[in-house]
Amino acid sequence: MAKYTGPKCKQCRREMAALMLKGQRCLTDKCPVKGKKKYPPGPPRKKRTKMSDYAVQLREKQKVRRTYGILEKQFRNLFDDASRMKGITGDNLLSLLERRLDNTVFRMGFASSRMQARQLVQHRHITINSSIVDKSSYRISEGMKIGITEKFKVNAILEDSIKLAKAVDSVPDWVEVDFENKSGTITRLPLRSDVLDNFNEQLVVELYSK
Fold this sequence. Notes:
Layout: H1 8-15, H2 53-68, H3 72-84, H4 89-98, H5 101-108, H6 114-122, E1 126-128, E2 131-132, E3 145-148, H7 156-168, E4 175-178, E5 183-186, H8 201-208
Antiparallel strand pairs: 1-2, 1-3, 3-5, 4-5
C-alpha cells in the first residue's frame, strides 16, 4: 500500500513512541502512548517474548521512516545517498531527512505537521528563491530562501500554524525565519545535534548493512 490512511495515533502505538504525526499539536493533544494504552495495537497477547535483534532494528527503521512520512523506497534511496557521503552514515541520513522541503516547511513553523507541509508544497504554495517548487522531496541547501506565495500569505491555516510555532518556540537553529514576511533562510545544513527526536540511527544502518 502506497499511503497509510488510518489513525495516526495507531502508528505511534505500533512503535511505542510519539512520532509527532500531528506535528506541534501532539504537544497539546492527549497522546495515547503516554496514556493508558502503553501497548501495540491489535489483540492483547498473554505473553510477550523478547524481540530479536532484527526486530529491534526493523522497529527503529519504521519509527524514523514514519516520523518523516516517507515510503520505503524513498527511505532506502536516502540511505544509499547517505552511505556514499563523507562522515557517519547515520548522521548523514538524518541530515538528508531534515533537508527535505516538506520537513523544512514544517520546521520553519509554516505548517502544523509534516503532512500539512507536504500539502502546501504539492499545492504550489511554497517558493524557493522566489520560484515555486511543488516537489516535497526537494533537497534544500545552505543559503536558500524559503517563502510563501502572495496568494497564500493571508490563509487562516497558515496563520494558525505560525501562532502555534511561536507558542512552542520550535524553530531550529539552522533556519532563520521572518514570520512577519512569512519567509525564511537556510543559514546552514542541519546536523545530528539539531534532531531532537529519540532516534537510534545506528540500528537503521545495521539493518540495511546486512
